[in-house]
Amino acid sequence: MTDHFDVVIAGAGPAGAQCARDLAARDYDVLVLETENEDEFPRQSNKSTAGTFPGMMGSFGIPDDVVMQFTDDVVLESPSSHFTQSQPGAVLEFAEFKRFLVREGRERGAEYRFDSRATAPITENGSVVGVRYDGDEEVRADVVVDATGPAAPLAKQLGVSDLERENQAIGIEWEMEGVDVNHPDYADLTDAMMLRLDHDLAPGGYSWIFHTGGDTAKVGLCYIQNEKYHSNTDGMSIDGYLEHWLESDPRFADAEKLEGKQHRGSAHIQPPSQLSTDGFLAIGDTVPSIDPLWGEGIHKGMKSARAAAVAIDHCLTGTVDTSAEELGIYDDLWHRDVAPDAGVRLLMTHLLYYAPNERYDRLMRDINDIDIETLAAANGGSVRAIAKLLHREDLPMLRDFARENPDVVKVGLKDVVPFV
To answer: InterPro entries from the xrefs (predicted)?
Structure first.
């Protein structure tokens, strides 16, 4: 095996595997280092709820056979109300999805080395030139990509990643059967993806039911370990909160967990301070790229992978130049295409999870009353549209939020008032 490649990618998750897939299709010599054993892949990293939308499926050529269930609606719940919007989607079988990306990359010429844990970047004259893995093994490359997620062993050592614990969201999910997806006391969740805002179940976060066909569903919750979590928690672990929901919600009265189908994961809800340096890029949840508001990470990670592939192709075409300046094209593409308005969406996220339960009930009434165009604009970060969801009674809450979260407010306002 050669010890030099055009590109070495650490991590075979959706972002890493998609980046390898794109680059191999352009005839670059690509090596992917993956920590897990190939025979069991991705047992340890099968961590996503895997809800996505047609835009991702079509843009990246994802086949229907990795879909557990196509959905027709998105449902938002509060403690005593709900909102339903027609929105086609898909709940993926995440492990099959990951294996598909690996298989496609290999068919296009990418090499994979499983049981290979990337541990450190190799640098020369201030530029990254390779990766050290499995102790003393080394491989060289013109460009190195960290796609290992929050672990970020390469990005952290290079100072590219600055993930902070207080911005970490943790999640747990079970695949279940016997779920009553059309209970008379709740919204009809048949062929739907549901997100519930309720601090009694997920303080500082949300819970979900994603229908996967028949009486089966993915059921879980996640939350940021922030002020709202600490002010609401009574010492329960995340497992305790999930068990509390399963025991108290009649939709789960006859439900059973599917053996071996528990998934755990984490991601960071914060904008990246840096994305690249000389000879190096970070993609996917290493950066991180997850949408802070609703937690959608697959499409964001895939788009970050494609943006990285475009930047690498630019740097390796003609005269090779992998300087930070040239690779900075990736930074521009990331902010334009992957996560535009990241600051204002982060502000919306923190404000949403700061609100009390009774405000969630009012929110459901409000979004049921406004038109779809305004709702879409609010979800996209339009200040004018968001203002239509606020009331005079919210002023004390907004004042307290701004006082307690000045940095979040400042970053968010920069997206809409650049001189702030």
So the answer is: Dggglyphlred_Halo, FAD-bd, FAD/NAD-bd_sf, Geranylgeranyl_reductase
Handedness of CA 289, 294, 298, 299 (dihedral sign): negative
Q: What predicted TM-score, i.e. pTM, was given to this entire model?
A: 0.91
128-163: per-residue pLDDT in tens?
999 999 988 999 999 999 999 989 999 999 999 887
Query: Which amino acid, 251?
Result: R
pLDDT given at position 144: 98
Question: How many angstroms separate the CA atoms of 385 and 359, rounded?
Answer: 18
Residue 316 carries which side chain, given as an amino acid letter? L
Q: Which of 228, 222, 198 is nearest to 297 (CA)?
A: 222
Low-confidence residues of the chain: pLDDT under 50: 1, 418-420
Could you check whether the bond before residue 288 is cis, i.e. omega within 30 degrees of 0?
A: yes
How far lies 345's CA from each of 300, 358, 378, 381, in Å? 14, 22, 10, 6
Residues 6 or more apart in contact with residue 220 via CB below 8 angstroms = 49, 171, 172, 173, 174, 207, 208, 242, 263
Q: Which amino acid is at 328?
A: G
- DSSP assigned state of 337: I
CA distance 48 to 89: 15
Domain 4-50+94-163+270-338: what homologous superfamily?
Answer: FAD/NAD(P)-binding domain (3.50.50.60)
| CATH 3.30.9.10 correct for 67-92+166-268 | yes
Question: What pLDDT digit, counting tens, does each position of 312-326 carry?
Answer: 999 999 999 999 999
Q: In the numeric block, which tokens belong to residue 257? A: 């967990």
The whole-number pLDDT of residue 419 equals 43
Query: Which amino acid, one-letter code, is at 114?
Result: F
Yes or no: say if 33 and 137 are a contact pair by the CB < 8 Å rule.
no
